[in-house]
Specification:
Strand 18 and strand 19 (502-508) form a beta hairpin. The chain is of the alpha+beta class and 691 residues long.
């Protein structure tokens, strides 16, 4: 290439580039058509491809955006062949701007795709801002520069400054000052009109717009070039090409787009920081530990849809905060505090438990004290698939009343045990006027003091699950009306029958019902492990038998790992796998156990999204091996790799490994069925990954 003219080699490279872009566009269009067809076929069900797109972002929108970028590049390649004898702006690369290209914006059904097409001054000209620029608007002055010295380099061209006017008129095309300018300033409307004519002349020769598949119509517009690209299927895509002049080598441009609601003169150009904003936000996306910044922008812009002023203001606020808040604190490594349904249920149960505790205290009876409530189960797991009508399970902590203590029955068997209740009245003076249940006369105890817990909710000396659940039902029935978050004018609460927990249905005036199951739990010392009233699935246990639950320790461990892994791929993996296994409780818990084991053997850096498929393969291989060997060790039994932040009771730290697949070893039919189900799931996952 010599100067600004195109030699044959350059034209050949541009032709090959156009052919490559055409092939790439054809491939993407084929994928897009296939995706649309799959969506029509499976519109009444959940598809695995939908799950993968949820885990790996929605790609359909980006395919359309990439196609438009390729299209504009193709058009610019055609425009580059304009005769160098004409002194009109040169076209630089195009970039996507506006909401249709913001990955965090809500996806509209029919967005307008805005592209900023960069204009460069032609030979012998230069662009500069008019002196005294006012705020974010200015005029672009076009000035002539001497080309006498560079004449031999740029070819046969007369210098506009030092050549005779008569010679210029006869031998050379007019300068930009006499074509697209008003006075000495570049005119937006004249430039737009010139560009529209270029599009009309060259649309047929654009390799990415074959007439057999597309038709392109140029629409009227004052300060831009608007086109409608219609496909043979009838779908129309609107594209608006805005013009921009780069300020030096910066990321700031003066654009032809006028400010909303303000009619600007045709020579006024508007400052746009679109490229700088996009560059800054993508830089921040790379520095923040996960995708919570993306989620925040998406949520806020969705709330402000249609309110352009507020949307721009919000983005500005976020950018200001990003310069003052350390990137490490921008992640969602702590539980989500959005006031969603789960948080509302959690708050309602906490309020209900508080009311029950006050009533329990006033009764002066020796019943268990109620501690805080915590959400357990899939409805409170941020990675579990959100069901339309889940059962919200809450673990309500029970503490021993005055003069009593809880302890496990000696000889604990695996993950089940009885809770023994003992009297400890050594603190008599501290708890007020209270008789010792151990050493006070029976007659005096009967006359002056309410019965101990051993005579109310126990069978023998063991806390009875069913009696305790029945007592808690009565408390809930008595106190539901005094719960401030359940005003009777808006909600009704009905207590449902249940053997070992308290099930309640909260119905709103709109008719929507939420099912809540309050499970009772006793904390083992100061650890993160509890004995709960919930029985093991499919196994009927005696009423004095309580089940070990590690729900709090598991949640604590996983949130700890979310903070150590570099991005949100761990969250995505758990979400994808648990959704695959929806409805298969046995496999779901086994999978979570497998992931926790792998988290203690794979370095945190190995959970980056780059290794998403490798970690997914590790999970499936580990689970397959455990099924084949009929052995999967419980994560918290005798595991020496538990982080010190997780507090375990001493007997768990020294316990022998507990096999979660023991029932498979004892039942060949169950093992065969489990292997068959796993192979089916593995095959379906592999098939979807290959699509």
């Amino acid at each position: 290439m010599v100067g600004d003219e195109l030699d044959e080699a350059t034209r050949d490279r541009m032709r090959r580039r156009s052919e490559m872009l055409s092939k790439e566009m054809a491939r993407m269009l084929q994928e897009l058509e296939q995706a649309e067809e799959m969506k029509r076929i499976e519109q009444n069900g959940v598809t695995w491809s939908g799950l993968l797109s949820a885990a790996l972002w929605t790609w359909k929108f980006w395919v359309i955006a990439i196609l438009l970028l390729l299209l504009i590049v193709g058009l610019c390649c055609c425009f580059s062949k304009i005769s160098p004898e004409r002194f009109l702006p040169e076209l630089g690369p195009a970039m996507g701007v506006g909401s249709a290209f913001d990955c965090w914006r809500p996806q509209e059904d029919d967005p307008v795709y805005r592209m900023l097409v960069i204009l460069k001054p032609p030979r012998g000209h230069t662009f500069c801002l008019e002196p005294g620029t006012v705020e974010n608007e200015s005029r672009i002055c076009v000035k002539l520069k001497c080309t006498c010295i560079a004449q031999q380099m740029v070819g046969p061209m007369l210098c506009f400054l030092h050549s005779p006017e008569e010679q210029l008129t006869k031998e050379q095309k007019p300068s930009l000052l006499h074509t697209l300018c008003t006075d000495s300033c570049l005119d937006v409307q004249k430039t737009a009109c010139w560009f529209r004519d270029l599009v009309r002349e060259n649309k047929a020769s654009t390799p990415l717009l074959p007439s057999c598949y597309y038709s392109l119509a140029v629409l009227p517009s004052r300060r831009s070039c608007r086109v409608a690209i219609q496909r043979t299927c009838g779908r129309t895509t609107l594209v608006e090409m805005i013009f921009g002049v780069q300020l030096g080598n910066s990321d700031i441009f003066m654009s032809s787009q006028e400010r909303e609601g303000i009619l600007s003169p045709s020579t006024t150009w508007t400052l746009t920081c679109a490229q700088a904003e996009a560059k800054f936000l993508w830089l921040m996306f790379g520095q923040t530990p996960d995708d919570s910044l993306h989620s925040l922008l998406h949520l806020c812009t969705r709330m402000l849809a249609g309110r352009g002023f507020f949307t721009s203001a919000l983005k500005t606020v976020v950018m200001h905060l990003l310069t003052t808040t350390p990137p490490a604190t921008c992640g969602h490594r702590t539980p989500n505090k959005l006031w969603n349904r789960s948080e509302w249920v959690h708050a309602v149960v906490e309020s209900l438990v508080t009311a029950c505790q006050e009533s329990n205290f006033l009764s002066k009876a020796f019943f268990p004290e109620l501690g805080s409530a915590m959400g357990v189960g899939s409805a409170f797991d941020c990675w579990s698939p959100q069901e339309d009508d889940p059962v919200y399970r809450m673990l309500v902590i029970l503490k021993p009343p005055r003069g009593h203590t809880f302890c496990l029955e000696p000889g604990t068997v695996e993950n089940e045990s009885r809770i023994c209740v003992k009297c400890t009245c050594t603190a008599e003076q501290m708890v007020g006027p209270m008789l010792c249940f151990l050493y006070s006369p029976e007659e005096q105890l009967t006359e002056e003091q309410k019965p101990s817990l051993l005579h109310t909710l126990c069978t023998g000396s063991c806390l009875d699950v069913q009696k305790t659940a029945c007592w808690f039902w009565d408390l809930v029935r008595e106190n539901k009306a005094s719960t401030p978050l359940l005003p009777s004018c808006y909600y009704s609460l009905a207590v449902l029958p249940s053997r070992r927990s308290c099930r309640a249905a909260i119905q709103g005036t709109c008719g929507r019902t939420k099912l809540v199951e309050m499970i009772l739990g006793v904390q083992l010392g100061n650890s993160d492990i509890f004995m709960s009233s919930q029985e093991r699935e499919g196994i009927l246990r005696p009423s004095t038998m309580w089940t070990l639950t590690c729900a709090r320790a598991e949640a604590k461990f996983l949130w700890l790992m979310f903070g150590r892994t570099p991005d949100d791929s761990l969250h995505s993996l758990l979400h994808l796998c648990t959704r695959m296994l929806a409805g298969r409780g046995f496999f779901t818990y086994a999978l979570k156990t497998v992931v926790m084991h792998l988290l203690t053997t794979t370095p945190p850096s190995g959970w980056h999204r780059t290794y998403f498929l490798l970690r997914l393969d590790d999970i499936m291989r580990y689970l397959n091996r455990c099924l084949e060997e009929k052995c999967l060790d419980h994560f918290f039994f005798g595991n020496q790799k538990i982080p010190e932040e997780i507090v375990l009771p001493p007997f768990l730290e020294t316990a022998k490994p507990f096999n979660l697949f023991q029932h498979l070893a004892q039942d060949p039919a169950a093992h065969e069925r489990a292997m068959r189900e796993f192979k089916e799931l593995q095959h379906r996952l592999t098939a979807q990954l290959l699509l």
